Amino acid sequence: xxxxxxxxxxxxxxxxxxxxxxxxxxxxxxxxxxxxxxxxxxxxxxxxxxxxxxxxxxxxxxxxxxxxxx
Amino acid sequence: xxxxxxxxxxxxxxxxxxxxxxxxxxxxxxxxxxxxxxxxxxxxxxxxxxxxxxxxxxxxxxxxxxxxxxxxxxxxxxxxxxxxxxxxxxxxxxxxxxxxxxxxxxxxxxxxxxxxxxxxxxxxxxxxxxxxxxxxxxxxxxxxxxxxxxxxxxxxxxxxxxxxxxxxxxxxxxxxxxxxxxxxxxxxxxxxxxxxxxxxxxxxxxxxxxxxxxxxxxxxxxxxxxxxxxxxxxxxxxxxxxxxxxxxxxxxxxxxxxxxxxxxxxxxxxxxxxxxxxxxxxxxxxxxxxxxxxxxxxxxxxxxxxxxxxxxxxxxxxxxxxxxxxxxxxxxxxxxxxxxxxxxxxxxxxxxxxxxxxxxxxxxxxxxxxxxxxxxxxxxxxxxxxxxxxxxxxxxxxxxxxxxxxxxxxxxxxxxxxxxxxxxxxxxxxxxxxxxxxxxxxxxxxxxxxxxxxxx
Lengths: 70, 456
Known about the structure:
The complex is a heterodimer of chains A (70) and B (456).
Chain A: H1 3-20, H2 25-48, E1 53-59, E2 62-67
Antiparallel strand pairs in A: 1-2
Helix pairs in contact in A: 1-2
Chain B: H1 3-6, H2 21-35, E1 39-50, E2 56-61, E3 66-71, H3 73-76, E4 88-98, E5 103-113, H4 116-132, E6 150-155, H5 160-171, E7 177-182, H6 190-204, E8 209-214, H7 228-236, E9 241-245, H8 253-257, E10 260-261, H9 265-272, H10 276-310, H11 312-405, H12 407-412, E11 417-419, E12 437-441, E13 446-450
Parallel strand pairs in B: 3-5, 6-7, 6-8, 8-9, 9-10
Antiparallel strand pairs in B: 1-2, 1-4, 2-3, 4-5, 11-12, 12-13
């Protein structure tokens, strides 16, 4: 859950580490690659959110999520 | 005593006195005001109206009666709560009559929600108890996600609070899902239903954050959120909880145990999600920084490579690489040769074989022709040999003729070649002077001489 935030935090960390400029080239390439992947994941996560609004209603003694029209 | 006396029919009216309306109302007013100067009266507010002047007008009623109440601005501005229709209150004031309308009314100086005093004491006591247990500690508070995937809201589906939250979420164009747990937010069952909602979300784990929301109301309305059981449920929640109860000035116990207190339900929505635009800007900002940092790394790497290249050691290394490259080329070339050799051998073998095949077909024809050919060849060879001999004689003769043309052959005929001291052939007498040493090459041997004199 809240995958986006974790994703963004890791990306932020990678960028900061790269910006320090102390990592060796080999490592920086690995970090860069991971960063690019994270950025793509973030974007996907953003696009995937549907913004649906549901309400839990009791049906046969069980709570079921149903679409909520406000 | 007659029956009619007993029934009062023998009543004789006093001398007739006719009042003016004003005198009457004034007289009653004086009487009433003297009798009811400082009273407490309890009832339900209705027809509430707050006038622009700051005065409040409303009706207090119970099941059987009602009375008008006015509260002047000087008293109204001291109120700690906002009176509303349907609210049970206790008012303190004096009874009077509004002469212009002949209406009985209370001029109130003080107003408190009924039972508020008792509620306030209970509130302070519970607050102190939970605080002592450490339930309000900042260290207990969980961080609230700024971009949750799904938001759980425990509230009444009819509440304005819910509409406010949904409006904000929609306005921010964020795609977060919303799951509503419907609960009463007022009355006896409210605390239990809201608790059940928080527990449900903790059990099903379908949401990243829980908002417990309710719009504004009287202290009594909000009393459900001062419930100890609900406070403990929220404190125990493993999912972050945001309390969004009433207005900014309203504080309930759950505001203290929640991970975050939002002043209003709308504010809760704003706290729980940042705008999509802001998030997208952050994401692309990070991506930009990532690329920039990487470019810098590559630039630095290239620079140190250049430095290395200028360094002798690297030059030697390049030399080594070039030499290896050359050796590789050579090996490749040789490999090619070997391959070509093999191919050539195979080609030849193939030709031999095909020749054998062809031979087989025409062998008999050829054997006849072969004999003729042999005979002819013998003849040809002797002809060729004779002509060769003839040529050799001619060549030897030409060689003698050529020899006669050679300068050395001329010397044989008595000529001499004269050289100066530096060994250059001398063709002009002007090039020497008396006393210069010269040499002359004869057909056999050389003589050295000195110039005695010369003729131009």
